[in-house]
Design brief:
The protein is of the alpha/beta class and about 290 residues long. Helices cover about 40% and strands about 15% of the residues.
Length: about 290
């Protein structure tokens, strides 16, 4: 329940500890021409570096670098192209930013190359299901976020259906945790993401948000990503760039229910909101 506090999980992000003693903010850095909200804005290494530094100044606790769009209907990017996009940015950032870098990828070769270049966290929308991904993640020694998705980015929003979305999401995540542990990845290196917007209708997304405590109670840190997504846009009737306040509200609700990492485009307002959430939950001094 809100207000309960045990020992804070600590993720060893390639030698940079991320202490989850409060809701942490992951800033999104898309090195893609076609992401739904900011595609094309940060394709050059310098633009990416500038944006990353700005997010750190605004209070981001880690930066998530992605070279392949996973918006609904998106096509897969080849390994060589993804490496060409993300590697110069990770190499440039690893010596400049004081916070851990996350690589948003499902490809084993990208995981290994990014880890060697200084990434400290793997964020995989396919939950290490691709051939060789479990082994690659184990070899890196990095924390991994396992996300639920029904289908693939190309197909996931065509006709998502569930008998019980919470039961099915939890069952999938439990299976992937077991697969990771069986492959030699320690449980304390795993983070769970229910996958808002990935093969889910609005009714599914809002039920997952309303009942997020069910995923939190699986006993691993929970990461959520709702920033500027259609679940927010459908409520507000506004395009992605005008969904800041709704996105912050969704992040607050998730943090109140126990999410420990919120993945966002708009760092400063979310950092402020998380500070208020944390103070409300745990500030019991006069």
């Amino acid at each position: 329940m809100p207000g309960e506090r045990g020992a804070a999980p600590v993720l060893d992000c390639g030698g940079r500890p991320l202490v989850l003693d409060r809701p942490r903010v992951m800033g999104i850095l898309n090195i893609t021409p076609d992401s739904f909200s900011d595609g094309g804005r940060f394709l050059s290494p310098q633009a990416a570096l500038d944006h990353a530094m700005n997010m750190v100044e605004e209070g981001a606790d880690l930066i998530d670098v992605g070279g392949e769009s996973t918006r609904p209907g998106s096509d897969e990017v080849g390994v060589a192209e993804e490496l060409e996009r993300v590697m110069p940015v990770i190499e440039a950032l690893s010596g400049e930013v004081p916070v851990p870098l996350s690589v948003d990828t499902s490809k084993p070769d990208v995981m290994k190359a990014a880890a060697a270049a200084g990434a400290g966290f793997i964020n995989d929308v396919f939950a290490l299901q691709r051939e060789g991904a479990l082994e690659a993640a184990r070899e890196t020694g990095l924390p991994v976020c396992l996300m639920h998705m029904q289908g693939t980015p190309r197909t996931m929003q065509q006709d998502p259906r569930y008998d019980d979305v919470m039961v099915e999401v939890k069952a999938f995540l439990g299976e992937r945790v077991a697969a990771c542990v069986g492959a030699g990845i320690p449980r304390d290196r795993l983070v769970l993401d229910p996958g808002f917007g990935f093969g889910k209708r609005s009714v599914h997304n809002f039920r997952l948000l309303r009942e997020l405590r069910g995923v939190v109670n699986m006993g691993l840190p929970v990461l959520v990503g709702m920033s500027r997504k259609s679940m927010v846009g459908g409520v507000l009737g506004r395009p992605p760039g005008e969904r800041i306040h709704g996105s912050v509200a969704a992040a607050v609700l998730a943090a109140w229910e126990g999410a420990l990492i919120v993945r966002v485009h708009d760092v400063r307002p979310t950092v402020d909101a998380m500070a208020v959430v944390h103070a409300t939950l745990y500030n019991d001094t006069e």
